[in-house]
Amino acid sequence: IVFLGNSLLDTRIDPDYLAELVGKQVTSIATDGSGPGIWFLQLSNVIGAGQHRPDTVFVFFHDDLITRPISFTGPADRALIERLSRPTSNGTVAQSTYDRILGANTLKDRFKTVFASIYPAVDSDSSGQRLIASASAFITGSNRNRVSKTSEQVFSFANKRDQAAVIQQPKFHGAFESVVDGSFLPSLISGANELGLKLVLVRVSARPRDDGTPNEPESLAEYSKQLASYSEGENVRFIDMTGHPGIDAAMYYDGYHLKHRFRSYYTEIFAEWLQTDWVPDQ
Predict the structure, then answer these.
(1) CA 162 – CA 32 distance, rounded (Å)
(2) Alpha-carbon Rg for the chain in angstroms
(3) Mean pLDDT lowest among 56-60, 160-164, 224-228
């Protein structure tokens, strides 16, 4: 078993302990700050280049990160991309796919960044918001109503004051059907199929509310339903850990990462699932 993900995976799965619990060889190549672009390159040029390939690859992600066309959730690590882009038997194809997906979304991201950064200098009246929403939707190719809703949040007078309190809230960047084709997800699935690997997507949950209910907007819950349906059609297993009864708010040290002392406990939860609910040949 191989795990792909970022620091959220690293705070949840202890590969050595999991190997003891399930009697399988387990490797985690969690990379801090990484995103789907890096996971695609790791699948193609690291796992795919190995002489002994795993049976199953688990990809851990939060919110809607699996369909965001990005390589990093923070600052880019150019040296890492260069190392993962070294030629292998299928490296040229993988690099071409990687460049195509990122290239198609770079211009959109630049414009979105500009519009999000200028809000302090713009009057936040409704006509100004409508102007920004229309222009941003036109330039980025996004749905105008969705951009308008986002701009209302960005230009809200209270937003600047309250931003620190909501920074760890679940993130949503668009309905699943509108973002999946421009993401790395189809390439991850096709890459796993070409390598003869089973691919399992695991969506980790944000910190629950203090009363134990999931901290998840309705739009993100609907996104998960659509992702589950898409995954089933592609013969990919999808696990949504949101609302898991064994995981509560006290286990988190921020909005997403677990405290280190709960890493073994989460690994045990995952081991139990592997041994009871997961049928390897399906």
Answers:
(1) 27
(2) 20
(3) 160-164
Buried b vs exposed e over 92-103: b needs ≥16 C-beta within 10 Å? eebbebbeebbe
Based on the number of CB atoms within 10 Å of its own CB, is 66 exposed (0-12), middle (13-18) or buried (19 or more)? buried
Residue 113, judged by CB atoms within 10 A of its CB (0-12, 13-18, 19+), counts as exposed
In Å, how far are 67, 150, 151, 215 from 223, measured between CA atoms?
Answer: 10, 17, 21, 14
Task: Please provide residue 238's backbone torsions phi and psi, each rounded to the nearest 5 degrees.
Answer: -125, 130
Asked if residues 37 and 70 have their Cβ atoms less than 8 Å apart, the reply is yes
Burial of 260 (0-12, 13-18, 19+ CB in 10 A): exposed
Q: Does 79 or 127 have the greater pLDDT score?
A: 79
Give 3's strand partners. 28, 58
Per-residue pLDDT at 36 exceeds 70: yes
State the Cα–Cα distance between residues 267 and 263, nearest whole angstrom. 6
Q: Using an 8 Å Cβ cutoff, are 230 and 176 in contact? A: yes
pTM over 0.70: yes
Amino acid at 198: K
List the structure tokens of 270: 């995952």
Residue 153 burial class via C-beta count within 10 angstroms: exposed 0-12, middle 13-18, buried 19 and up: exposed
